[in-house]
Amino acid sequence: MRTGPTVDLSERRHDLKWGVPVPFASDEHAGYAVDHRAPVTGPADLGTVVKARVIQCALSRVCGLCGLSMSGVTTFVGSSDEAEANSFGFPPMHTACATYALDTYPPLGVPVLGQQLVLHEWVVVETGGFDLERPQERGMPVLFHPNSVTSRESVSVG
Amino acid sequence: MAIADVKEYTHLSEEQVEELGRELDALREEIEESRGAADAAYINRLITIQRRLAAAGRVTLFASRYKPAFFAGAAMLGIAKILENMEIGHNVMHGQWDWMNDPEIHSSNWEWDTAQPAEQWKHSHNYVHHQFTNVLGHDNDIGYGVLRMAREQRWHPYYLGQPVYNALLALLFQWGVSLHDLDLEAIRKGRKDPKEMKRQLKQIRRKVSRQISKDYLVYPLLSGPAALSTMKANAVANLMRNLWSYMIIFCGHFPDGALHFTEEELEDETRAEWYLRQMLGSANFTGGKLLHIMSGNLGFQIEHHLFPDLPSNRYAEISVKVQDLCRRYDIPYTTGPLHRQYGQVIRTIMKLSLPNGMTSEDTPIEPTPVKDRRRLTDQERPKRRTEMGAWSTRRTA
User: Fold this and answer.
1) Which value does ipTM take for this structure?
2) In chain B, at which end, N or C, are there fewer CB atoms within 10 A of the end residue's CB?
């Protein structure tokens, strides 16, 4: 697996049920990266992505996990179908955040990181940039299309 | 007023709106597929020119005690700053060149030559302004929290001073923009997260110190006996950039024809409707190639708002096709010479310094009820809960 700088998620809201940080893109309480006013009311749906936060990640170029500015390599994680279609639903992350996310969330055994199903095989794609696809119809997801892929790796989890 | 009620396109059926969206999608795809070496060469060439110009300006200012060197150096440095902010920095931070995979010319890494930290610009501009374009109460660029730019904004005697505030904003533009993402209104009303404010203030302090040190300490001291005149010339260069960028930015959304929207429409917007809001809320200006480069290709503001992450050097060719679409679908395409567009902006600023009853509208539109609006925080902007298949009205923060 890749290595990278330490991931600091101490400022992120934590999910009460699983005891894990709620990804920025899944946190409907998140606005800025740091938000102490957000109440911790119960378990978050770790598989859901919040459209407003996803758009914010895309436009403001912030990480889908930690909510901080992107720097260095842009990394997407998703299913093999998503990788095949070059079309990801979870926003880009720092490489270190992507590593942390795959170490932390899939072992919970519930759908995570924008997935509707529990995945045991994940694909990690590193890219220079991406193109954003806004939902064509109401209820459809926001999609990211990596446009300058430098590496692609399958990862087994659990 | 919902986007679907905007009379400029109520003549279109839902199917036509969706068809227009598909045509714009196809246009985007065409550019994505054809971007390549020529585009990369363009931005690399421009960065080289900008850096040489900046270096030439700085070197010339070593002799700034002599008037010709003072003016030549200040002019070169001012133009270099304009190029860096407008055509390079602004567009790089939109991710227009990320596809090149160049770690330097990349939205994640570029830090521009102005007082606002790049990270805060990418929030206040790339997200808040581009996502909520011209939506009253959401888009903080409408008057920058200082000016009344729409008749729907409630009048207050404070606005009588608007012509003066406008002049100050133009002169001090980089400093005004540096505070933009702080959201001073939220701070004043105690709605800003103190920890986030502290974090942002620290970033601003660091960036401002760097900018001041560079232009008013390090380079003047390097000029030796010409230190004082170099400092003055640097101030002139910054002033040039402030006035120019202010004018270009204000011409993007405030000339006649650029519409404002209300927040209700955000809750029910398809991609095609989002395209339409961008087209109707933006205004272009006409001019030669040099003018467009100096203005960061924001003379193609409509095209920029439709496709903010496509390379700016392609906006001219995109604009031909967008104009054709507007003709075919009978949608307004707001454009005109720069002097006329800016003249309309100034007229709007003057008129809206007075109560609505004392002035007339320049573009007759359906009357919209006056509402007391304030800037929304990110927490208050609408959120879609996809698992519900509809917009949630739940307020949690």
Assistant:
1) 0.88
2) C
